[in-house]
Amino acid sequence: MQKLRHIGFIMDGNRRWAKARGLSHEAGHYEGVEALKRVVRACSELKVEYVSVFAFSTENWKRTKREVDAIFELVEKFSKTPPEEIRLKFSGSIDKLPQKIVDAVRFAEEKTKNNGGLLLNICLNYGGRDEIVNAVNKILDKKLSRVGEKTLEKYLDTYPLPPLDAVVRTGGEMRLSNFMLYSAAYAELFFIDTLWPDITEKDILSVYEKYLSRQRKFGGD
Ligand code: FPP
Predict the structure, then answer these.
(1) What is the pLDDT at residue 220?
(2) How far away, in angstroms, is 200 Cα from ligand 1 center?
(3) What is the pTM of this model?
(4) Engineering a disulfide at 157: which of 85, 91, 121, 130 sits with its beta carbon 3.0 to 4.6 angstroms away?
(5) pLDDT at residue 76 in the model
(6) Three-state DSSP class for 113?
(7) Following CA atoms 114, 116, 118, 119 in sequence, which dihedral angle do they give, to the nearest 10 degrees?
C-alpha cells in the first residue's frame, strides 16, 4: 500500500484568521503555532515520518518589522520548548538570521536529535529556488564539474529528507509559493479553504485518506 512518509504544509491564512476576529497579525501567527502542534500530533498518530512546514520565506522580509520579529520570537520560543518526542530540523539560510535565533534553532536541533518521533522540518528564511542555487554554488566551491540528481540532493538544505509525498496548502490559494520545489517534484497537492489556525485533526485525516486513494504514477503508466 502507498505510504505517506513525508508531508509538507504551507501554513497560509494566519492574518486573515486574525483580521476576522479583530486581532493583530501577531495573534494570528501565535494561533498558527498552536495549529502546528495539533498537526504534528495528528501526523504522529498516522505514523507520518517527516513533516515540513513553511514558517518564513526569503520573501517574507517584505512584511513589517513588527510582524517579522513576532514570527522569530515564536520560532525561538518553540525551539526552546519543542513538543516532546519529535526531532527538529531547520532548513533555509539560517546563518543569515539574528544570532539569538541561530543559537536557539541549533540548540533545538542538537537537543532533539536522538528523539524517536517524527522529524519536523521547519523552513525558515527559506526559498525553493534559493535552496537550489545555494546547492549549485556549494558544488562549484567543491570544484565538482558534472553532477547527477543524487549528488545535487546532498547539497540541498532539506537533505537527507525523502521527497515530499504530499503538500497541503491551507487558506484557499492554489500555488506553491517557492516551497520545497525540488522535493515536491512528484508530490500530490492538496488545497483546502480552511485558514491555518482553524486546521483540525479531521482535516489531516481527510487529506490522508484522499492521498491513499490517489494513484501515483511518477511519469509511468
Ligand atoms: C502565512 O499566512 C504564514 C506565514 C508567512 C507565517 C507562518 C508562521 C507561523 C505559523 C509561526 C512560525 C513558528 C513556528 C514555531 C514554526 P499569512 O500570514 O500570509 O496569512 P494571510 O494569507 O491570511 O495574510
Answers:
(1) 83
(2) 16
(3) 0.96
(4) 91
(5) 97
(6) coil
(7) 10
How far, in Å, is the centroid of ligand 1 from the Cα of 53? 10
Compute the half-sphere exposure of residue 12: CA atoms within 13 Å on the CB side of its CA.
19
Residues whose beta carbon lies within 6 Å of some atom of ligand 1: 11-16, 29, 32-33, 36, 53, 55, 60, 71, 74-75, 78, 122, 171
Count of helices and strands (H, E) across the chain: 7, 6
Strands 50-57 vs 119-126: parallel, antiparallel or unpaired: parallel
Looking at the chain, the whole-number percentage of residues with pLDDT higher than 70 is 100
What are 93's three cell numbers? 539560510
What count of residues does the chain have? 221
Ligand 1 centroid to residue 71 C-alpha, Å: 8
The set of cell numbers assigned to 213 is 486513494
Q: C-alpha distances in angstroms, 87 versus 26, 109, 124, 128?
A: 26, 7, 16, 22
- Rounded Cα distance between 87 and 27, Å, is 26
Q: Which amino acid is at 63?
A: R
Find the radius of gyration of the CA atoms of the chain.
Answer: 17
Helices within 20-173 (DSSP H only)? 25-45, 65-80, 99-112, 128-141, 149-154
Q: Measured from the CA of 13, which atom of ligand 1 is nearest? A: 23
Which residues are annotated as catalytic?
12, 60
Q: Which atom of ligand 1 is nearest to the CA of 28?
A: 18
Q: What is the pLDDT of residues 120-164, one digit of tens each?
A: 999 999 999 999 999 999 999 999 889 999 999 999 999 999 999
